[in-house]
Design brief:
The protein is mostly beta strands. The protein has no helices and 9 strands.
Length: 105
């Protein structure tokens, strides 16, 4: 299963965060990338998705870091299971979500 979000821009004082959730009953290994809209390259400075399976009911996070980055990006996820969901959000330094896209499924 391959998923891709729409595009969001982090405003000054915020960051892009992609959260990937395993809604299944077994651990699943995923390939997830928070990508630059301009280049398609990874812009994640925090990545808890790479290297470890996501536990049943668990989540991992990719984050662009730097709360004044102004990053423009999107999230891609590949997994062998249809029980994976993802969401892209703009989050302020205080943890407030100021923009979010519907879950990827």
């Amino acid at each position: 299963m391959n998923l891709a979000s729409g595009v969001l821009q982090a405003t000054p004082g915020s960051t892009l965060t992609c959260t990937v959730t395993n809604t299944g009953s077994k651990p699943v290994k995923v390939t997830a990338v928070l990508r630059s809209f301009a280049s398609g390259s990874s812009i994640a400075t925090i990545d808890t998705c790479t290297g470890n399976p996501i536990a049943a009911g668990g989540s991992c996070v990719l984050d662009s870091g730097g709360f004044d980055s102004g990053s423009i990006g999107y999230c891609t996820v590949s997994a062998p299971s249809a029980k994976i969901r993802g969401a892209l959000a703009v989050v302020t330094e205080s943890g407030v979500v100021t923009a979010a896209l519907p879950p990827l499924k």
